[in-house]
Write a structure and sequence with these properties.
The complex is a heterodimer of chains A (289) and B (395).
Chain A: H1 2-29, H2 36-53, H3 58-87, H4 91-113, E1 127-130, E2 134-137, H5 138-160, H6 162-172, H7 174-179, H8 184-206, H9 217-231, H10 236-256, H11 264-278
Chain B: H1 3-27, E1 29-37, H2 44-63, E2 67-69, E3 72-82, H3 87-99, E4 104-106, H4 111-116, H5 118-123, E5 127-129, H6 152-167, E6 171-177, H7 180-195, E7 199-207, H8 215-223, E8 228-232, H9 239-248, E9 254-256, H10 263-270, E10 278-281, H11 291-304, H12 311-314, H13 316-327, H14 335-342, E11 347-348, E12 357-358, E13 360-361, H15 363-366, E14 371-372, E15 376-382, E16 385-392
Parallel strand pairs in B: 1-3, 1-4, 4-5, 6-7, 6-8, 8-9
Antiparallel strand pairs in B: 2-3, 10-15, 11-12, 13-14, 15-16
The chains are: A mainly alpha (289), B alpha/beta (395).
Amino acid sequence: MEQIIANGLYLGAQYALIALGLTLIFSLMNVLNFAHGQMYVFGGFVTYTVVVQLGLPFIVGLFASAVVLAIMGAAIEKFLFAPVVRRSKRDESTMLLAAGVAFFLDAVILLFFGEKQRGVPKIVNGVLNLDMRIIMPYDRILIGVLAILLIVAFIAFMNYSRTGRAMRALAQDKMAAQLMGVNVSRYSMIGFALGAMLAGLVGGLLVTITGVNLGMGGPTSVKAFLMIMIGGAGVISGAIAGGFILGMMESVGLTVLSAYGDITYLVIFASLMVFLAVRPQGLMGKPWG
Amino acid sequence: MHKRTFLKISALAAATMLSMPLMAYAQNATLKVGFVGVTSGPAASWGVSNQRSMETRAAWLNELGGVKIGDKTYNIEIVPFDDQKDPKRAIAGMEKMAQDGVHYVVGPNVDDGAAAVRPVAEQNGIMYFPYAFPKELFTAPASNAILGMVANYQSGPAIYKFLKENKGVKKVAFVAANESDPLSQRESGIAAAQALELEVVSGNVTYQVDTTDFTPVLLPVIQASPDLLVLSGVSPANAPQLIRSARELGYTGLISTETGQDASVLLEGAGELADGFISVGGASTPELASDTMTEFVDRYTKMFGEYNDESNTKVYALEYILETLKANPAAIDNVDEFKKTMDTFEAANPFMKGDAKLKYVGMTSFGQKRQVSVPLVVNEYKGGKFETLFVGTVD
């Protein structure tokens, strides 16, 4: 039981961090960023390149992932999403653009980083073994703790910084925020950059544990959408809750249901369908948006 | 002769001489060989290594002046199609090959894709070389598919027998991705283990291919205390993570798979935890690789920046197509001629040392020669590279 909880918490921390960036972009711009998973993969590859190819310390790789993805996110928002949002009133325009960006990033990743699975060697060796009740490698503990610290830092940034407050105001009521002097286009760009940066950071963190490959983008996006649907789209606390709930459900399912074959995600999706039928706005979302 | 006339004649002569090699190159006819397989997504590594092997070898042969088949010399053109591991796309790819007049296709890489393209290939006179194992593709009445590698039901029993006799393995556990290929490989692996009177202590645990943490997946498997953990049909992307999770959970037994793997991927993903991992390889171990194979690896690396160990096996399909066509030039646009030649075909194997031969096999498994003969090399990973554990053959 302790092992299941430990696995669930570790998975939840990484999932929550992935979902945060996606929900931030959604809350600010009402854009479903289908390329979020590809951004995560790109971040992993940047860290891999810096650490393995260039031989620099892991922290430098992580920093490089954050910077590269923030710049990429800002550029994508400024040159792609902002013009489309300005000119088109239809939500599907941005959805199609996001899908296009996802395919484009897949192609770029194949071109620059190749088709192989890549990984960064373990940053910490050794395994925590508490009488076989909990077995957890130290690197996972470290990554889990770092993920939680990043979540805390993100919440603090959103609550106490001027930029964070402006973005929250924008997410709550764009018109009112604009009337209060918030520069919508500027903070939309910062928000998108921040969301992409979070995706890159998770990719950089997890490349030391799970590795990274070209095909991880799509499934990662699907899981991220799953989390924000559970927690409530566009709600920061909802994304965190969704991440931990999904992590825990996955951990429990894989252990308890293993005897019945690979039905964990079948059960999760079925449960989600029932849940959304009862509460379509998710746990913490508002019915009106 | 006027100076101006002399200059004109000299310039014309120089231009003619410079264009001669180009003209010779252009004079060759073109032989299109197709590739329909997965070059994107999580299994991209399988198809990309196929396509790049073909492109490397084709460029090399074209550079040497082309391939002489009968009284004509051909430049080889590779026509690739990414089926995205989707059977519907694989059918579209095979139809494209038919429209382009391609009669020889390498791929698809997975079971459902290979099964899906069968009607298209048979109706349009296409021989194809899948890297997929369903026996019905290779047994009569099917006759257009040629297995491009050693199947798991051929390598698995050999590996288990070796480990039973040499490493004292008694209890085996299987874990597979929840997809058709790994699941069918798991089933045949379990049957092979049971035939050898090994105890199967876990055989129903599966995982999603996009799993990022294998600890919860492997926990119940490791608790069954197997001597050998078989990663059925594992992709190169998942193998290092599974190995790492198993070792971190305290598993000290043997781990093996019947699929090809890549040493650099194992090194990066699992490091020394992958030491002792047993997998099926190709013909590039130092003991087996010929100078041609070594040059192929060099050329591949120059063309694409990095070699892929899976190409040790993937290099063979194009060679078999070309050598069989050389043996019977009438097969160039008639696959029935190709089929007739297969029964007696034999040519020197350029990729192996000694007097190894290229020939079609498969009588024991399929009742007809519908498999390329590649060495069954079983490798053990150690310190960042593969070491040959044993070499077998398939008849």
